[in-house]
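Work Package 3 (structural annotation) set out to generate three-dimensional models for the target panel prioritized at the project kickoff. During this period the team completed the workflow that converts sequence records into C-alpha cells, so that structures can be stored uniformly alongside our sequence database. As a representative example, we reproduce one entry of 304 residues exactly as it appears in the project archive.
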Amino acid sequence: MTVVTLGVHIVDVLARPVESIPAGQDTHLLEQIRVTAAGAAAGTAVCLAGLGVPVASMGAVGGDELGDLLLMIMERRGVDVTGVVRKDGEQTAASILPIRPDGGRPSFHVPGANLGLSLADLDRGRVSGARVVHLGGMDATWGLHDPDFFALLAEARGAGTVITMDLLSNMADLMPGARSFLPYVDYLLPNEEQALMMSGAAGVEEAALALLDEGPRAVLVTLGGEGSLIATASGLTRLPALDVPVVDTTGCGDAYCAGFIAGLVDGRDVTGAAELGTAVAARVAGGLGSDAGLDGAQELRESR
C-alpha cells in the first residue's frame, strides 16, 4: 500500500441542522442524518481513497454491530481494512454530532476500542513497508505510547517511509503523550488549539516553531476559516482557506491531512501539498460528514 493510516477509528452519527436539544419527549424534524467513518485514521483513509490514493487502515474496533458498519463503510469507499483488528467484548468508538446551522459541531463520544490498540495489534511489515504512514490520534491511543513502537517508526523512517501525524482531541492532559512522538514524525498537522497546548506557547507562530524544533521537517497548523500556517526550516508561510459555504466542519482536519498526504505522494513540495489539503478540506466542509464532497475529488489532484 502507498499509504497506511494508523490510529483512531470512529463511527459518526451526524444530524443537521440542530439549533437545540428538544425538551422532554419533543421531536425536532431535521434535513439530514448520516452515518460515516470518522476519526483521525479512518476519516483520513476514506478521504485518501476518494482522492485515488491506495490506502490501508490499521486500528481497533469492537466486535459489535457498529464495528461491522464501520468496516463496511470504509470498504465501500475503497479502503483496505484487513489491518483493523476486532476486540470482542469492547464497543466500537462512536460519536453523536448535532450540527449547528453555522457548521459548529458539539459531540457526544465513546472512545471504545481505540484505547486498547497496541503494538501487538499491528502488522509491523505494513508499517515499515509503506510509502507514508499517517498517525491519526496518537493522543488517544495510549497503548502505542511504547518505546518499541517508537523504534518501529524509527526503523520505517530509516527505510524511507514518511511519517505524518494528526491529533484527535483538544484535551490538555493528553498532549504530553502526543508530544513524545515528535522525534519520529516528519510532518505534524495539529489544529491551533492543539498546537498551543502541545507547545505551551502564547501564539500560533511561536507554537509552530517550538514544535518544529522537536524533530519534524514541517509543522502545519490548521486555523479553521483562517486557513493554515506552515512552519519549516525556511520560515513561516500562511495559506488562506477557500471561500466556500460551510455546512459542517466535521472531518475537515482529516481531509486537510489526506490532501496533504496525496500531495506528498504526487511529489509536491510542502506548500503545494498543503494547497491540495486546503482544497480537499473545503470540499468536505460543503456537506455533512467527514466523507462529504468526495465524489470526483480525484480531479483535485489533477487540477491544482
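The first helix runs from residue 42 to 50.
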